[in-house]
Write a structure and sequence with these properties.
This is Glycerol-3-phosphate dehydrogenase, mitochondrial. It catalyses: a quinone + sn-glycerol 3-phosphate = dihydroxyacetone phosphate + a quinol. Strand 17 and strand 18 form a beta hairpin. This protein has 26 helices and 20 strands. Helix 4 packs parallel to helix 9 and helix 13 packs across helix 14. The strands form 3 sheets. Strands 3, 4, 5, 6, 11, 12, 13, 14, 15 and 16 form a 10-stranded mixed β-sheet that branches. Strands 1, 2, 7, 8, 9, 10, 17 and 18 form an 8-stranded mixed β-sheet that branches. By secondary structure, the protein is α+β, with helices and mostly antiparallel strands. Helices cover about 40% and strands about 15% of the residues.
Length: about 750
């Protein structure tokens, strides 16, 4: 169900919609206000008691004084962390899983003075936690169900999420911020009902409401969101939720745990669980895990009084290590997102489509100066490498077209990146109805003592971790006090200010855009990145060599990423920076330099560098949408061009294929470019042709070129470098200056 169903009353299909100024419309508004006020009064009482409880809790945390931070300045290296994991006789808590929830559990445990360990099979935030919609939100849809069905559980779930939203924005101000989201309204009678629903969202948030929602006239809505479809628009409602850089937020949680003394290690998998008989009952109890360092292959035991399973979609894998007969509880669902150029949305205004053609909700949000759109929701199999499919990409594009002005041509070729994340929906093993999906999260303790935390949402990771540790302390008689993570600043947040970037510009000579990016990514630790930035050799900027020209990521971030436990090139392009999520072609272009820097820092052999480059390119191809783009072009077997267009493009093709071979190679293109005095690096030229070389035989055949031009004309491919380059050559540009073949936007 969606917002439309939440706040609309049932009316006869024959009844006309009330118009502004009419008696029916005024009654509708009045009825909405009265009904909303009654519900608000009931909810207000619970708000008051919750506020008193929250204040008492904050007073307790403050009374405890500052926590000790053993590694406030320099983090232990990964090797030192592994040494601690191998040589510690016994931990109090071992967390398996380095996503948001697992990292949250580690932070909650270590700040309760529990000896804490965490292992992650891949990289921190490599799964669902880096592939979200980037929102920190309470869930308007859940509030709708709470009101319509008088469901107290749903109401408390929204209330908890709104509390956690406020906390997360407070403890990581550099990585998160409030975002206004517009709900366009195309029927007059919807306006008061949508308004009532959104106002209720504000009321439930209470004192933690980010900013009050408000109604916009048609003209004001179009002023703030000029790309919006004008026809039949009657106005809009704007409400506020939070937005964040999800993988960096996840990493900040994990690094904060490490600074407080938790031993954490990525690329460390659990091979099997360790068990020993309980001296009282004789029953086998989980007492740790046998692990393998995937970088070196070394295996070792980690012993712990309590093991927490926080593996997201892989929940059942670890549960079956404990008991092979246990039933599956995870019902995975895939959500696809796409990234398109920033000009599709205003810089600081999102859009919510509450009623898509198939009943789902689509968000359309500015993010990292691009526009993110999603998500879908389809059943899927659990995999570590989910792949976005063309049908889902086209569904999102179709829904986006419904809300944007006809003047804005939404092209398939403008998709710069696409990814799929697996949402780990779960059934409650403690429930009688084990087939029904749990609407929130579940915490389960097995007969052998394995704790499982599953389900939930990104926003509530902290409260989920708190509940899990409370259960662990009770189940395993651990000596620890209450949670201390409310208000606990995350790594980089302590010294951040909105004007920090100005100091970076003034003190180090960084570009303004680069300085803003570093401040928003690393917070107070941005100075550590700036200190190791290389001199450019230019008048300005003085330091900070960019990895690619159109993004503010600089080379020193690669070096710093290794200090943040990055082990592979994928870690850098996907999770330490977000380049792979923002523009696949730009990430592909940056990869050779990233591998070169990491190779020098980590002493990789030439063979290792080659393997890293290949693995990262494969990641971009399969998981970040490049494959969908290639499939799109290869499926264009029917060349939808007129005879005149085919003749024109053949003429262009044969300007390069002088010998009428029926194909062109890099040598053919190079010869033509030399005549025009155009200088292009040989590797870059190879990449340009490889984008169009569908059968990967090292040459572009006439049919492939015609397929490309047909796809370009239909908007399936945009800004093809080969198409631009060959058009430039045909037009015979003058010899006075080089011709740029840089992407204006790219496209996958």
């Amino acid at each position: 169900m969606v917002l439309q169903n939440a706040f609309l009353v049932q009316t006869s299909s024959s009844s006309p919609a009330p118009k502004p100024g009419s008696m029916a419309f005024r009654k509708a508004v009045k009825g909405t206000l009265i009904g909303g006020g009654a519900v608000a009064t009931a909810f207000g009482l619970s708000q008051f008691f919750e506020y008193r409880k929250h204040q008492a809790r904050l007073a307790y945390v403050e009374a405890q004084g500052e926590l000790k931070v053993p590694f406030k300045d320099a983090l232990p290296t990964r090797e030192e962390q592994l040494s601690t994991l191998r040589n510690t006789e016994e931990f109090d808590v071992l967390v398996v899983g380095g996503g948001a929830t697992g990292s949250g559990c580690a932070l909650d445990a270590v700040t309760r003075n529990l000896k804490t360990a965490l292992v992650e099979r891949s990289d921190f935030s490599s799964g669902t936690s880096s592939r979200s919609t980037k929102l920190i939100h309470g869930g308007v849809r859940y509030l709708q169900k709470a009101i319509m069905k008088l469901d107290y559980e749903q109401y408390m779930m929204v209330k908890e999420a709104l509390h956690e939203r406020a906390n997360l924005l407070n403890i990581a101000p550099h990585l998160s911020a409030p975002l206004p989201i517009m709900l366009p309204v195309y029927k007059w009678w919807q306006l008061p009902y949508y308004w009532a629903g959104i106002k209720m969202y504000d009321l439930v948030a209470g004192s933690q409401c980010l900013k009050s929602s408000y109604v916009l006239s048609k003209s004001k809505a179009l002023e703030l969101f000029p790309m919006l479809k004008k026809d039949k628009l009657v106005g809009a409602i704007v409400y506020y939720d939070g937005q964040h850089n999800d993988s960096r937020m996840n990493l900040a949680i994990a690094l904060t745990a490490a600074r407080h003394g938790a031993a954490i290690a990525n690329y460390t998998e659990v091979v099997h669980l360790l068990k020993k008989p309980d001296p009282k009952t004789g029953q086998e109890k989980v007492c740790g895990a046998h692990c393998r360092d995937l970088i070196t292959g070394q295996e070792f035991d980690i012993r712990a009084k309590c093991v927490i399973n926080a593996t997201g979609p892989f929940t059942d894998s670890l549960r079956k290590m404990d008991n092979q007969k246990t039933a599956n509880i995870c019902q995975p669902s895939a959500g696809v997102h796409i990234v398109i150029p920033g000009y599709y949305s205003p810089d600081n205004m999102g859009l919510l489509d509450p009623a898509t053609s198939d009943g789902r909700v689509i968000f359309f949000l500015p993010w990292e100066k691009m526009t993110i759109a999603g998500t879908t929701d389809t059943p899927t199999e659990v995999t570590a490498h989910p792949i976005p499919v063309e049908d889902d990409i086209n569904f999102i594009l179709s829904e986006v077209r419904n809300y944007l002005s006809p003047d804005v041509e939404v092209r398939r070729g403008d998709v710069l990146a696409a990814w799929s994340g697996i949402r780990p929906l779960v059934t409650d093993p403690n429930s009688k109805d084990t087939q029904s999906i749990c609407r929130n999260h579940i915490v389960n303790v097995s007969d052998s003592g394995l704790l499982t935390i599953a389900g939930g949402k990104w926003t509530t990771y902290r409260s989920m971790a708190e509940e899990t540790l409370d259960a662990a302390i009770k189940a395993h008689n651990l000596s620890a006090g209450p949670s201390r993570t409310v208000g606990l600043m995350l790594d980089g947040g302590q010294d951040w200010t909105p004007t920090l970037y100005i100091r970076l510009v003034q003190d180090y000579g960084l570009e303004n855009e680069v300085a803003q990016h570093l401040a928003a990514t690393y917070g107070g630790r941005a100075f550590e990145v700036a200190k190791i930035a290389q001199v450019t050799g230019k008048r300005w900027p003085i330091v900070g060599k960019r990895l690619v020209s159109e993004f503010p990521y600089i080379e020193s971030e690669v070096q710093y990423a290794i200090k943040e436990y990055a082990c592979t090139a994928i870690d850098v392009i996907a999770r330490r920076t977000r380049l792979g999520f923002l523009n696949v072609q730009a990430a592909d272009e940056a990869l050779p330099r990233i591998v070169e820097i990491m190779g020098k820092e980590l002493q990789w052999t030439e063979q290792k560098k080659k393997e890293e480059l290949e693995a990262a390119k494969n990641f971009l191809y399969l998981e970040m949408g490049y494959k969908a783009r290639s499939d799109q072009l290869s499926k264009t077997t029917e060349i939808s061009l007129t005879a005149q267009e085919i003749a024109r493009y053949k003429k262009r093709f044969y300007k390069f294929d002088k010998e009428s071979k029926g194909f062109i190679t890099t040598v053919d293109v190079q010869q033509v470019l030399e005549k025009l005095s155009i200088q292009i690096d040989e590797n870059a030229l190879h990449e340009i042709l490889n984008e169009v070389d569908l059968n990967k035989n090292g040459q572009v055949e006439l049919d492939e070129f015609l397929q490309l031009m047909s796809a370009v004309q239909r908007g399936q491919i945009s800004d093809s470098r080969l198409a631009i380059l060959m058009k430039t050559a045909e037009e015979g540009l003058d010899l006075r200056g080089p011709v740029s073949v840089d992407r204006s936007g790219g496209g996958v």
